[in-house]
Task: inverse folding
């Protein structure tokens, strides 16, 4: 090293000293990192392969938490107290999860919170979905979140969800993931007859009302029966699940891309799969808190629902379920003036809004200011602000909090980069950051960059998954 340094000219030396190079996170990894990257990504692929819906993700997350020694709020309510080191989880409506580890410091001094979301864009079945047309049976769908409709035709699709029967019985449905299970599909026109379709704008080539799922084509075997294909489907659903057509009115069934997450590339450096926005952050945040013992600050991880439709509903971040969860914890800590303690706790908390951002894609130039763009494989992305048209709707983190995170990440050897979602005036987007910021806490958006975000097959770099895990862990430590 010394000889090399001597050979450098004063200008090059000065450049080394003063210029920031945003290097690939793959460089300078030791063998321990390399092994950890493989292990965490194998496990992560399993997580996204099994967690295809918010319900499934919540269920899997609770199981992982229980295996790590977390107990439900109900358990602590029975005991009547929470003491430092206790690990608590709460699940709301089977779709949102909050985890805490009680710290030795007073909770009034604030928590370290990492918040991600476990819902993802998809097609929901309409309340009356089943119909027959031209001797084929279909389900009508209504898409959830921001999709490009043409992504959803001619790919194998799976169906997951719950049907609530009149007597209250809940039927869990999951079909299309295993290799021996049937899948479903939405058709597209053949190129030969697409002259009219091809002249339409991409946003209009496939319509919302056109996203109808083929579910069958074989009629019930009886001469002259009307709508025999639909009847045959109803017969099969009755035999397999005990369902009648009316039961769809009280169901939540989600159509998602079928099949597991996959390794991508000869070097297997990427993970491809559905729902990585934002299950990549949910998974890494969850792993980060499961690793903690006896913290000083109270730690918290939020896995929220409904982010993709604006965080509304009682499982979305705009509802009070999170605030109520913290109130329960504070009460069990036996703090006098619990209402003030809750306000102080929020005011003094720090939060990472763990969500993905859009990486530079060489196939689509001009989407980013390259000086301020997030890149695949360059580590966890800190997004000071999001929003659109002049940061509108964005949290815009304070430089002081960013500075603190910069030190935390550097000290822990986490490779990070700065990134805007896209070029000014091109578009934009939001996260749950601004909702938590309303309580007065410091919030910073950070997570990995994805390619093909909101598509049925999103891509993430494995080294970025690892750096997110390490980053969230360093923040919670
Ligand atoms: Mn997201
Ligand atoms: Mn999203």
Result:
């Amino acid at each position: 090293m010394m000889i090399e340094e001597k050979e450098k000219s004063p200008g090059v030396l000065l450049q080394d000293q003063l210029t920031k190079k945003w290097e690939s996170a793959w460089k300078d990894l030791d063998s321990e990192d390399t092994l950890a990257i493989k292990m965490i990504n194998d496990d992560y692929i399993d997580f996204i392969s099994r967690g295809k819906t918010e319900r499934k993700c919540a269920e899997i997350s609770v199981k992982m938490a229980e295996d790590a020694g977390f107990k439900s709020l109900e358990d602590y309510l029975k005991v009547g107290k929470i003491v430092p080191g206790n690990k608590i989880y709460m699940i709301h409506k089977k779709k949102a999860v909050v985890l805490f580890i009680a710290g030795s410091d007073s909770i009034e001094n604030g928590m370290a919170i990492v918040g991600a979301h476990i819902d993802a864009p998809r097609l929901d079945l309409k309340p009356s979905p089943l119909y027959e047309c031209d001797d084929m049976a279909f389900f009508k769908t209504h898409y959830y979140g921001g999709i490009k409709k043409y992504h959803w035709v001619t790919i194998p699709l799976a169906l997951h969800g719950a049907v609530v029967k009149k007597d209250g019985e809940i039927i869990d449905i999951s079909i299309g993931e295993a290799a021996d299970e049937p899948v479903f599909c939405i058709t597209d026109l053949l190129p030969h007859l697409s002259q009219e379709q091809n002249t339409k704008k991409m946003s209009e080539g496939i319509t919302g009302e056109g996203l109808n799922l083929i579910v069958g084509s074989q009629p019930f075997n009886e001469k002259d029966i009307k709508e025999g294909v639909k009847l045959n489907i109803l017969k099969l659903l009755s035999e397999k699940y005990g369902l009648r057509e009316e039961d769809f009115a009280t169901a939540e069934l989600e159509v998602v891309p079928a099949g597991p997450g996959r390794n991508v590339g000869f070097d297997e450096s990427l993970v491809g799969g559905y729902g990585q926005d934002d299950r990549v952050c949910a998974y890494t945040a969850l792993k980060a808190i499961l690793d903690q013992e006896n913290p000083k600050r109270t730690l918290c991880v939020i896995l929220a629902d409904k982010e993709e439709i604006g965080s509304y509903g009682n499982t979305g971040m705009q509802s009070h379920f999170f605030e109520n969860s913290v109130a329960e914890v504070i009460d069990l800590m036996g703090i006098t003036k619990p209402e003030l303690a809750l306000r102080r706790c929020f005011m003094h908390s720090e939060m990472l809004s763990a969500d993905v951002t859009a990486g530079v894609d060489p196939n689509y130039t001009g989407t980013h200011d390259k000086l301020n763009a997030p890149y695949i494989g360059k580590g966890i992305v800190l997004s000071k602000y999001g929003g659109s048209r002049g940061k509108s709707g964005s949290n815009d983190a304070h430089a002081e909090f960013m500075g603190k995170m910069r030190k935390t990440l550097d000290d822990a050897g986490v490779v990070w980069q700065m990134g805007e979602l896209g070029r000014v005036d091109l578009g934009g987007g939001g996260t749950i950051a601004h909702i938590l910021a309303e309580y007065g806490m410091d919030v910073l958006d950070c997570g990995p960059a994805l390619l093909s975000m909101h598509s049925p097959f999103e891509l993430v770099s494995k080294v970025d998954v690892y750096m997110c895990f390490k980053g969230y862990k360093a923040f919670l430590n």
Notes: Residues 122-257 form a domain with the Aminopeptidase i, Domain 2 fold (CATH 2.30.250.10). The mean pLDDT is 96. Residues 277, 308, 454 surround manganese (II) ion (ligand 2) (CB under 6 Å).
